[in-house]
Write a structure and sequence with these properties.
The chain has 16 helices and 16 strands. It is an alpha/beta fold and 413 residues long.
Length: 413
């Protein structure tokens, strides 16, 4: 099958979305499919074609939001190139410029299109409205979401039941909605894959000693991730164990504010901020940590939780639908609903090393369900559903040739 992944974000941009896309491409290619990528050029204002990796980058203008760029919704120069790929199916990953282009291109050339809805946009409205007109803004988001995910696609994929319920119960979506938890290349997070020298070097760089117990958060440093909850409650954890350090890995708009908060709480010597880190180094941070935590309530799935489980680390997460199917309370970690529960569960794990080991080992076993191969197989099934009744390109070529041969036979040519 010849598959086109259309997204506004791709490498070298680092995010959960990009990780998911790259993983899907690699897994599909291992299964023998040809995968092409159309994305925004984050590094220059030129069209770039990476023939080896089949990645076509379209120039755009900076949006001011991280490293993202906004391309035109119908870049004419790209049409000939993409048409030459003779795609069987298009898989759009975002709803913006490249996502709109994917829909226009699919309609123009009669190609089935599948879309994955990754982001609960209603949770991010405050970045634009600053608290004003939230109600009307959410209605606009609902309208645009339903338009992008209903009127212009063949099949819809969501990562969790939480997102499924958004479409089915709130948006009254009538089309198919396929729940497919995003997979990861779980083996890259296995502790045995990380050399001890890399772990020790990173610890030395961060000022972590052999006596320290590390509580880890990985993700975008922004208000919707509720990192303030982790910082505000860290002082409570220090009452029973002075050697607990909170390690916050990632960058974002609220990084400086959270640094100030840690200082205000007088625990800045027990909270470590790494800022932006290379994608390939992420497994090292999991390998040197003891417990993974998240209080975020805006996730659609929370891939970092799966990464932590693959790294054999117990997870303590907010009791949110995004995490309930991943974190099994009491087995692979704990779910909490309030400050008291969080502090209690954390203290329990901090003081019980064997429990951390047992939960981490079970998490490692459970993470297998999120392997990239299994994820790709399920996505491929959705592609086949979208293609139902339509022959693949190579089959169509054969049938057209056969038709021409028969036609020539009838005319005696």
């Amino acid at each position: 099958m010849r598959i086109g992944i259309f997204s506004d974000a791709w490498e070298p941009y680092i995010s959960g979305l990009v990780t998911s896309e790259v993983m899907l491409k690699n897994a599909l290619e291992k299964m023998g499919h040809e995968v092409y990528v159309v994305t925004a050029n984050l590094e220059s204002f030129t069209y770039e074609w990476d023939e080896k990796n089949r990645v076509y980058k379209i120039p755009g203008i900076p949006t001011g939001i991280y490293d993202s760029r906004l391309t035109g919704i119908y870049p004419i120069k790209a049409i000939k190139m993409i048409k030459s790929w003779d795609l069987d199916i298009i898989h759009s990953q975002m709803e913006f410029a490249i996502g709109t282009f994917a829909r226009i291109f699919a309609k123009q050339f009669d190609i089935p299109i599948v879309h994955t809805y990754h982001t609960m946009y209603e949770d991010y409205i405050h970045y634009i409205t600053k608290g004003y007109f939230d109600g009307p803004s959410k209605k606009i988001v609902e309208y645009l979401t339903k338009f992008y995910c209903d009127k212009t696609i063949d099949e819809l994929i969501v990562p969790t039941k939480k997102t499924y319920d958004l479409f089915k119960e709130k948006y009254k979506y009538e089309r198919n909605v396929h729940i497919i938890p995003t997979g990861i290349e779980i083996d890259r997070f296995y502790k045995e894959k990380i050399s001890l020298s890399k772990i020790n070097n990173k610890k030395s760089e961060l000022g972590i000693t052999s006596d320290d117990l590390i509580v880890l958060f990985v993700g975008r440093v922004a208000s919707e991730k509720s990192i303030d909850f982790l910082i505000n409650n860290h002082s409570q954890l220090l009452k029973k164990n002075k050697n607990v350090k909170l390690l916050i890995v990632g960058d974002g708009p609220d990084l400086e504010e959270y640094k100030k908060l840690a200082k205000k709480q007088k625990i800045d010597n027990r909270v470590i901020f790494t800022g932006k880190v290379p994608w390939e180094d992420i497994p090292i941070y999991y390998a040197l940590s003891d417990i993974f935590v998240t209080a975020s309530h805006t996730e659609t799935q929370g891939l970092t939780v799966v990464e932590a489980m693959a790294a054999s680390i117990p997870v303590v997460a907010l009791d949110d639908e995004s995490f309930r199917n991943t974190v099994i309370d009491g087995l692979t970690g704990y779910l909490f609903t309030n400050k008291k529960e969080y502090v209690s569960r954390m203290n329990e794990l901090i003081l019980d090393k064997q429990k951390r080991i047992n939960m981490g080992n079970q998490g490692r076993i459970n993470s297998e369900a999120y392997s990239s191969k299994y994820f790709a197989e399920r996505v491929l099934h959705v592609y086949k559903t979208a293609l139902k009744g339509r022959p693949l390109k190579q089959d169509r070529t054969f049938f057209n040739r056969l038709k021409n041969i028969i036609k020539r036979g009838f005319h005696g040519k």
